[in-house]
């Protein structure tokens, strides 16, 4: 029994450490890849002002949000361009096909997922959307291959959508995945990981 417990603890530690490292690397790469902005007064004055989001953009954004809630992904072919690039640090960039699979795996883990849009603005061909969400960790999947905890987790984040010919061609999806997984108790806090590592070393 003790040996089995140690093995399970070791697997959990390896998964958790790998996930934390991936999240950290993803965050670093995201910051590094962001274009540097010249914050001089001249640059600020030349930026176009934010605009109200059109009903068409809001409608398509809400259709995308509903996919995360219902799992009905047929609408994605209508609102996304065929050559979609979807950035979701710390995960690898996705195309339309891999995004659909990601949503399936995510909803398997969190089938009661709910999300609310807090604000939306438009600047030239890019819309920005702020949101908050919550869900319960009820099942495992390839996205999160650990035993479900039944714990409620909450988060907030943003989407930046680049529009081309009425469709979304590129997406930047930003959220705190580490806090999301830790609140769901899918991975333990750092203090517990260190304890597991110390016990393993004894």
Report what the structure shows:
This protein is of the alpha+beta class. It has a domain at 50-187: Nuclear Transport Factor 2, Chain: A, CATH 3.10.450. It has helices at 2-33, 41-46, 55-70, 76-79, 96-109, 177-183, 190-201; strands spanning 80-88, 91-94, 114-123, 126-136, 152-164, 167-175. A 6-stranded mixed β-sheet has the order 2-1-6-5-4-3. A hairpin with a 2-residue loop joins strand 5 (152-164) and strand 6 (167-175). Helix 1 (2-33) crosses helix 7 (190-201).
List keywords for this structure.
202 residues; alpha+beta; Nuclear Transport Factor 2, Chain: A; 7 helices; 6 strands; 45% helix; disordered N terminus
**Main sheet strand line-up:** 2-1-6-5-4-3
Low-confidence segments? 1-8, 27-45
Give the SSE string: HHHHEEHEEEEHH
Shape: elongated
Compact summary:
With 202 residues, this protein is an alpha+beta fold. It is built from seven helices and six strands; from the N terminus they run ααααββαββββαα.
Question: Strands, helices and their partners?
Answer:
Blueprint: H1 2-33, H2 41-46, H3 55-70, H4 76-79, E1 80-88, E2 91-94, H5 96-109, E3 114-123, E4 126-136, E5 152-164, E6 167-175, H6 177-183, H7 190-201
Parallel strand pairs: 1-6
Antiparallel strand pairs: 1-2, 3-4, 4-5, 5-6
Helix pairs in contact: 1-7
């Amino acid at each position: 029994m003790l040996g089995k417990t140690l093995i399970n603890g070791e697997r959990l530690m390896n998964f958790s450490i790998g996930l934390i490292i991936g999240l950290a690397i993803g965050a670093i790469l995201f910051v590094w890849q962001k274009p540097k902005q010249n914050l001089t007064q001249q640059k600020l004055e030349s930026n176009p002002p934010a605009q109200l989001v059109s009903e068409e953009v809001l409608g398509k954004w809400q259709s995308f949000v509903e996919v995360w809630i219902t799992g009905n992904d047929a609408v994605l072919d209508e609102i996304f361009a065929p050559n979609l690039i979807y950035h979701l640090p710390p995960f690898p960039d996705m195309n339309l096909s891999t995004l659909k699979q990601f949503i399936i795996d995510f909803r398997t883990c969190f089938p009661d997922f709910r999300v609310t849009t807090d604000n939306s603005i438009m600047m030239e061909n890019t819309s920005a959307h702020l949101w908050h969400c919550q869900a319960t960790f009820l099942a495992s999947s390839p996205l999160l291959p650990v035993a479900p905890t039944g714990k409620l987790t909450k988060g907030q984040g943003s989407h930046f959508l680049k529009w081309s010919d009425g469709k979304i061609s590129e997406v930047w999806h930003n959220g705190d995945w580490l806090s999301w997984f830790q609140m769901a108790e899918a991975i333990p806090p750092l203090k517990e990981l260190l304890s597991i590592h110390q016990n393993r070393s004894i």
